[in-house]
């Protein structure tokens, strides 16, 4: 589905033509099938309208004083023929909604969103909450695709059948046709009023559902912390607020629909009474028959149900529109452009050349005039207080976003001249907080190299010093690790992530203080695994404990987005500056002991 720059605002009501175009865009390769479905729905509606119109002559024959059995069978046959054609065309109209085509469109739309997700700037991705992305990719796709065929067919029928019946009535009695024109088409302004009132409500409802989904995901993920803080249930303020807001929106939507629906039904029922009165008047005047009036009343009652259905169909259309808008907003996020021609680095020295970067919502830049070279097959440590720009600097290498000034180069090649896949093929990352997928140990390690053999996976696990504990698991390498690796300890998860990085065998390794949250025994095992990982690679490590990086080839000290010092540990410790004060502070904490005197 193409992105539409003219996405509707919360206050506007999309026209039927706009909704039709959006559906065809969403259908993608199956758009011709959806278009045929609409065409068959129109033909089916015309046949149904003609079948209703056949009631006029049929009732004339039935109630005629000179009853003619041949004429009766003739009109029954004509009505049956129209009904049969209605059934046949309706069957064809359902080919889209009740076939693999609908599943194909849903699949293609999700694949398209997934590909866009892969190419989104990480900066934009991190701004989105997990629940919001889940709502767009899963929920909104179902909301706009699943009802597309059937709801549209119902809408077409509700509009087309009355038009055909009114035209047929005009051939029998133009006065009644005018009465029907005044009654049924006058429901259109009420219908638009309903769409205007409910349309905004449906968008608010869709937004409230997305917000609640985000809060639920966040609540479930943070449940251990919430329990520890005794902030579950009614005490989970954000989730409770979101649920209360959703309830308020739902109540508001119900109330908004009461008056328009009441007026619509009043208008339709009053219209039937008016038609009855006009019919009786025409009968008394000798220009209309009781049989025709009986047929007209049957038709009017049947059509009133169809027209009243418009309100419910319109609500579904508006919910679909809200889904369209969210998907279009998602697709409107432009991927980072790739400079042409694309280039591949010949070596793996990393260079920051006068790099300045700031977030759109920030008044001051996160990084300012960074000049730093990471020689190939060397270790560079980034140190500094929280918020100094260490993580942002490493994200620049992964092209989290493009700097406002300067260049980030790998082997002399600007990272903007590499596709995301090519760039990340050169980089392995070991995060402080390891994310494992709810899959087997084997598959979690194999993510580093999807075509790796079981033997290669095991070799990587041995190098990462995790083969021993994996062998003790209930099913060895086939053991399910649970969501986010919840069945494993922090050190075990960390070593599996290192095994994954070893298997990937990328020439650049980025470490985000992988031992910071581990106990002494786990830290030793993980450090041994890291020693295997960083051999003969360009390594950049974010360090909080300075004792872990005293052997680094160079240390860059960041403060307020600038490099204030750089050099080896021995050089920096001899200088009066930020690094020396950090080292002395950490050594002071290390040597600090708590003494207490117990009362006798």
Total number of distinct structural domains: 2
- Could you tell me the mean pLDDT? 78
Uncertain stretches = 1-11, 593-600
Q: What is the overall silhouette?
A: elongated
Structural class call reads alpha/beta
Helix-residue proportion? 55-70%
CATH topology of the largest domain: ABC transporter transmembrane region fold
Query: What is the strand tally?
Result: 10
Strand order of the largest sheet: 6-7-8-3-9-10
Q: Largest sheet, if any?
A: 6 strands, mixed
**The CATH homologous superfamily of the largest domain:** ABC transporter type 1, transmembrane domain
Distance between the termini: 78 Å
**What is the tally of helical segments?**
22
Q: Output the CATH class name of the largest domain.
A: Mainly Alpha
Radius of gyration: 35 Å
* CATH-defined architecture of the largest domain: Up-down Bundle
Q: How much strand?
A: 5-15%
Tell me about this structure.
- This protein has helices spanning 16-27, 31-53, 55-62, 69-93, 100-119, 122-127, 130-145, 148-172, 174-183, 187-221, 223-228, 237-284, 290-331, 390-397, 420-425, 441-446, 454-463, 467-471, 490-504, 520-533, 569-573, 578-590; strands at 350-357, 367-374, 379-383, 405-410, 413-414, 427-430, 508-512, 538-542, 554-559, 562-567.
- With 600 residues, the protein is of the alpha/beta class.
- It folds into two domains: 16-331, ABC transporter transmembrane region fold, CATH 1.20.1560.10; 350-590, Rossmann fold (3-Layer(aba) Sandwich), CATH 3.40.50.300.
- The strands form two sheets. It has a six-stranded mixed β-sheet with strand order 6-7-8-3-9-10, with helices on both faces. Strands 2-1-4-5 form a four-stranded antiparallel β-sheet, with helices on one face.
- A hairpin with a 2-residue loop joins strand 9 and strand 10.
- Helix 3 runs antiparallel to helix 13 (290-331).
- The termini are far apart.
- Mean pLDDT is 78; it is low at 1-11 and 593-600.
């Amino acid at each position: 589905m193409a992105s539409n720059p003219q996405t509707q605002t919360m206050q506007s009501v999309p026209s039927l033509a706009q909704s039709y175009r959006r559906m065809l865009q969403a259908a993608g390769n199956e758009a011709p099938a959806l278009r045929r479905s609409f065409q068959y729905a129109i033909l089916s509606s015309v046949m149904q309208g003609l079948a209703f119109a056949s009631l006029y002559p049929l009732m004339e024959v039935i109630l005629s004083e000179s009853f003619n059995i041949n004429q009766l069978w003739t009109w029954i046959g004509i009505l049956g023929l129209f009904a049969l054609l209605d059934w046949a065309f309706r069957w064809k109209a359902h080919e889209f909604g009740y076939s693999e085509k609908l599943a194909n469109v849903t699949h293609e739309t999700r694949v398209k969103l997934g590909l866009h997700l892969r190419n989104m700037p990480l900066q934009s991705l991190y701004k989105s909450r997990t629940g919001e992305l889940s709502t767009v990719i899963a929920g909104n796709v179902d909301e706009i695709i699943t009802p597309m065929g059937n709801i549209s067919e119902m809408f077409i029928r509700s509009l087309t059948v009355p038009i055909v019946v009114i035209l047929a009535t005009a051939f029998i009695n133009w006065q009644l046709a005018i009465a029907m024109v005044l009654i049924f088409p006058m429901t259109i302004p009420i219908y638009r009023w309903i769409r205007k009132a409910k349309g905004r409500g449906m968008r608010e409802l869709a937004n409230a559902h997305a917000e609640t989904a985000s809060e639920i995901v966040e609540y479930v993920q943070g449940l251990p912390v919430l329990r520890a803080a005794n902030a579950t249930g009614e005490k989970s303020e954000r989730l409770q607020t979101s649920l209360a807001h959703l309830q308020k929106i739902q109540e508001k939507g119900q109330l908004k629909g009461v008056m328009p629906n009441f007026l619509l039904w009043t208008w339709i029922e009053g219209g039937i009474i008016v038609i009855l009165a006009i019919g009786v008047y025409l009968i008394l005047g000798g220009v209309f028959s009781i049989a025709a009036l009986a047929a007209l009343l049957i038709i009017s009652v049947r059509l009133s149900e169809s027209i009243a259905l418009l309100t419910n169909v319109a609500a579904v259309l508006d919910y679909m529109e809200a889904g369209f808008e969210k998907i279009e907003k998602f697709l409107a996020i432009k991927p980072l452009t790739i400079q042409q021609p694309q280039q591949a680095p010949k070596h793996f020295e990393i260079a920051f050349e006068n790099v300045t970067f700031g977030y759109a919502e920030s008044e001051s830049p996160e990084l300012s005039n960074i000049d730093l070279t990471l020689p190939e097959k060397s270790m560079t440590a980034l140190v500094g207080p929280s918020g100094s720009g260490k993580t942002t600097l490493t994200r620049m290498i992964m092209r989290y976003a493009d700097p406002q000034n300067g260049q980030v180069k790998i082997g002399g090649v600007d990272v903007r001249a590499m596709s995301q896949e090519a760039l990340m093929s050169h980089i392995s990352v070991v995060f402080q907080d390891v994310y494992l997928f709810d899959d087997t140990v084997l598959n979690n390690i194999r993510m580093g190299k999807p075509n790796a053999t079981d033997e290669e996976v095991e070799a990587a696990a041995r190098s990462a010093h995790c083969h021993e504990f994996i062998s003790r698991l209930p099913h060895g390498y086939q053991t399910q690790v649970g969501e986010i690796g919840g069945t494993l300890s922090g050190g075990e998860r960390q070593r599996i992530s290192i095994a994954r990085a070893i298997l990937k065998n990328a020439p650049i390794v980025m470490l985000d203080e992988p031992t910071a949250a581990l106990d002494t025994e786990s830290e030793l095992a993980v450090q041994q695994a890291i020693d295997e990982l960083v051999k003969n690679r360009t390594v950049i490590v974010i360090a909080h404990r300075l004792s872990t990086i005293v052997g680094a080839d160079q240390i860059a000290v960041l403060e307020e987005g600038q490099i204030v010092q750089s050099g080896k540990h021995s050089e920096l410790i001899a200088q009066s500056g930020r690094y020396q004060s950090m080292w002395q502070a950490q050594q002071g904490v290390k040597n600090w002991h708590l003494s207490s005197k117990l009362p006798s």
